[in-house]
Write a structure and sequence with these properties.
Layout lengths: L2 H8 L4 H4 L8 H10 L4 E5 L6 H11 L3 E6 L11 H7 L3 E4 L13 E5 L18 E3 L2 H16 L1
Parallel strand pairs: 1-2, 3-4, 4-5
Length: 154
């Protein structure tokens, strides 16, 4: 979608939407595994800042061990709208299910793509060279990271 169709579609991404997004299967368990292993989880989301608190409340109500949401606004272009926030945050890992959001993320941050499904998504092509690992879902990433993170950091 683009133009008028995209603008119409985005109108539905309002406070009610961001306050009621359901969890993807296995995501809460994956985040709790990472949190229990001592990692602080932060949600960096390309949403308008006025929806930041609705998104945080939604995540907490679902049982995610996330206590901070950073809204980056904007849509992706040559550089991800999330890249600037990630440069300041300096996380060990950036995991996202939208390949274009990895554009411009510093290589010092492990860039993990959550592929989910490739049919009809932009998670294919040359930009796959911009990521460090790919995983079918967040739980697969969590399991892999917890098994390999000590090897990766040495």
């Amino acid at each position: 979608m683009e133009g008028v169709e995209l603008a119409h579609f985005r109108r539905f991404f309002n406070e009610e939407f961001w306050g009621t997004v359901p969890a993807i299967d296995g995501a809460i368990h994956a985040c709790n595994q990472l949190h229990d292993a001592g990692f602080e989880l932060v949600c960096v989301s390309a949403i308008e800042s006025k929806f930041e608190s609705a998104r945080l409340e939604n995540l907490m109500n679902l049982g995610f061990p996330i206590r901070r949401v950073i809204a980056t606004s904007g849509i992706t272009g040559a550089i991800s709208p999330k890249a600037a926030a990630l440069r300041l945050l300096k996380p060990l890992v950036f995991a996202d299910d939208f390949l274009p959001y990895h554009r411009g993320v510093p290589p010092s941050i492990h860039r993990a793509l959550i592929t989910r499904e490739t049919n009809g998504t932009p998670n294919i092509g040359d930009e796959l060279g911009n990521i460090d690992s790919s995983h079918q879902n967040l739980l697969a990433f969590s399991d892999w990271w917890l098994e390999n993170s000590t090897k990766l950091s040495s």
